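User: Assemble these into one structure.

Assistant: Restating your components, then the assembled model:
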Amino acid sequence: MIQGEKVTLPVRIRDAAVASAMFAVPAAAAQAVIAYSGLEIAEPRRGRAVCSLAFVRYADGDLGPYHEFAVAFLVRPPGAPPPSGPLGRLRGLAGVGAFIHWLPVNQPFTLEAGRTIWGFPKELADIPLDLSGRVRRCAVRFDGRTAIELAVRPGAPLPNGAGAPRLDAYSCMDGVTRRTPWEVRPSGVRMRLGGAAVRLGDHPVAEELRGLGLDRARALSTATVGHLAMTFEGAAEVRP
Amino acid sequence: MRRTALVTGAASGLGALAAQRLAAAAWDVVAVDVDEPGLARTALRSPNIHVRACDVADSGAVAAVAAEAGPVHRVVHAAGIGPLGPGLAQPLPEVERVVRVDYLGTVHVVRATLPGMLERGRGELVLFSSLGAWVPSPRSSAHSAAKAAVNAYAESLWMEHRGEGVEIRCVCPSPADGPLPRPSSEQRAAGDSAPAGTPPGAVLDAVERSLARAGELYVVPGPLAQATVLAKRYAPGLLRAFLSRATAPR
C-alpha cells in the first residue's frame, strides 16, 4: 500500500520520454562511490567505468506522472568472476546491470513507492525539464539551489526495436542491496557520439560527480527516447 | 509557486496526455471532460490533477469550473466532437451539437479564462482546432465548419490582444492526430480514410516549441499537416481532387 493505494507488481509504465548520456570515468573512483552497495563496477576497458546520467518524464504509468533524474553506473552481476583480457571484458558486458546511485523525483507518490517497493534512492526535488526543444534540458534543484544541469543533443534516428529489452537495476538502501528485473520497450530512439553538457552545483552527489571528472568529460554517447514503455518486477535482495 | 493549468477534453487522447505532462512538470491541473471514468484514468496517482465533470457546451458550468480553479496560467482546450456524415444527411441536432461543443465550447472556455489572464498580463491560451478547418473533406462538413469558426475566432482574438502578455495558439493537427474526428471502424470499412498522423506526444511538443516563441498564432504539427496547408494555399484544386479520390466510397 502506497499512500492508501494498492500498487500491484509488475509496475507498468505506458508512456515515458528520456534523454541520457554515458560517460567514461575512472574505475577506481567510481568503485569508491558505489562501495556502500558491495557491488563491483563493470570495466569495459581496463581502468574505465561507465557512469550514466538520464532524465525521464513519466506521463502515463502506475506511479502517476512525474519527472526523474538518474545517476547510474554499469556494474557486474554479483558473483560473476572479473573478466580478463579485452575479449573477456566485451563478453562480460553482456550481463551488466545498472546500479542506481541517485534518483531524485518531483512527486511524492513515486517517491514513496520507489523507496518502499524497490529501495530506489529517490528524494524530492524540483526537476524542470524540456524534452520538446532542439536541445533536451533538465535541472535538479533543492530549495532553488541547482544540484545538476544536463543538456543533451538528439542524434540520428535508430530503427525501432534496437536497444536492450531486459536488464537488471540494482539499488542499495539502508545497507540492503537489491536487484530489480526491468524491461524496456523504446521507440523513437536517437543516438550520437558526445552531445552532452553537464553543469554541477553544490549538492553532495554533484561533488561526487565532480570527483569523477564529469563536469569536464566529453560524453561517450547520448540517447533520446521519444516513447518508452517499461515494466518493473519486484526487487530481490542480493548478497554480493 | 505552483502554476495552474485548465485542460479540457482531458479524459482521453491529446487532452489526457497534456494533463499528464503538465502534472509531471508539477503544475496543478484542473482536468475537465464529460467522461468521468476517463478523467479518473488520467488522474491515476496524480494528486495534483483535479478532475471536474463538465460539458464545455454549458457556459455556466465552464464559468463555475474556471472560477473554482482560480488564476489559470495555461489553458489547453482540447475538448471536441466530430461525428462524420454527408452534409445533407447528417441529422440537424447532431450538427447543432457539433457547433455547440466545438465552436461555442471554445467561446465559453475563452470567456471564462482569458479576461483573468489579460488582467494579470500573462498566460497561455492553447485552443485545439483541426486541419479540417483549413482543408475540409467529404463527410466532415459540420466538424470542419465548426473548427473553421474556431480558427476565425482565435485569429480575431489574437489580433485584438496582441502585446497584452497572453500567448494565444490555434493548433491544427491532422484528423488522425486527434482529438477528432476519427472515423469509426464502420466508416473506415465504408471507405473513409484518415491520413497517418503525428503521434500525440509530437503534437504537444510542437505546441511547447511554439509557446517558447512569442507571438505566433497557428501551430500545424507534423510535416504531413504542414504540407497539406501549403497545398491548400498553392494547389487547392489538386488537393481537392486528391481528397475526393482518397475519401470516395469504394
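Residues 30 and 68 of chain B are 9 Å apart (CA to CA).
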